[in-house]
Amino acid sequence: MRKEILVVFMVLLLIVSGCAPKTNVTQAQVTILTPVNGSSVPGSGLVDIIAEVNNSVSVSRVRFYVDGEFLAEKTVTPYKATWDTSYYKHGTAHTIKVEALDGSGKVIGSSSIVCYINVEWTILMYLDGYNDLEK
User: Fold this and answer.
1) What is the b/e burial string over 98-119, where b = at least 16 CB atoms within 10 angstroms of the residue's CB?
2) Torsion sign (Cα): 98, 102, 103, 106
3) Cα(first)–Cα(last) distance of the chain, in Å?
4) Distance between CA atoms of 10 and 6, rounded to whole angstroms?
5) How far is the C-alpha of 84 from the C-alpha of 46, rounded, in Å?
6) CA pair distance 128, 73, nearest whole angstrom
7) What's the pTM?
8) Could you tell me which CATH number the domain at 30-118 has?
9) Which residues pair with 107 in a beta bridge?
10) In Å, how far from its chain's centre is CA 53?
11) Residues of the chain whose pLDDT is less than 50?
12) For residue 11, what is the DSSP state?
């Protein structure tokens, strides 16, 4: 009787362990090279977002997002997207996310940073021939 219970237990153990979901243990390591996390970017032009993905994983494409909005998709290195910051307010924070996808479209790695819009203002004052510094 004990042998039968042991056999049933072993069979159940094999069934349960064989039914465990398969997980992808190989993840792509995604690194955002530019801009740097916490940095300021110009608020009046184009900013290059450059990412690097480790070579130990088969990556079919890389997607770029700003504040959750899709920006670009690249299938070959260098993984680079251009972000037009002209329409963003000075001092605002924005999250850049880069995802690496495999051939089936599954996200196998990602990285996020936060950067700030920095608008440099040039103020020109015209004083109609009057100069306070001369008085």
Assistant:
1) bbbbbeeeeebbbbebebbbee
2) negative
3) 112
4) 6
5) 5
6) 53
7) 0.70
8) 2.60.40.10
9) 101
10) 11
11) 122-127, 135
12) H
**CA 105, CA 58: separation in Å to the nearest integer?**
12
Q: How far is CA 88 from the centre of its chain?
A: 19
- What token pair was written down for 71? 């920006």
Report the distance separating Cα 36 and Cα 114, nearest Å: 8
- 127 C-beta neighbours (distance < 10 Å), count: 7
What residue ranges do the domains of the chain occupy? Answer: 30-118
Which position has the token pair 């042998």?
3
Question: HSE of 43 in the Cβ direction (CA atoms, 13 Å)?
Answer: 16
Residue with tokens 């040039």: 122
Among the listed residues 43, 50, 63, 42, the one whose alpha carbon sits nearest the alpha carbon of residue 108: 63
For 10-32, how does the pLDDT look when each residue is reduced to its tens digit (9 = 90+)?
666 666 666 555 555 578 999 99
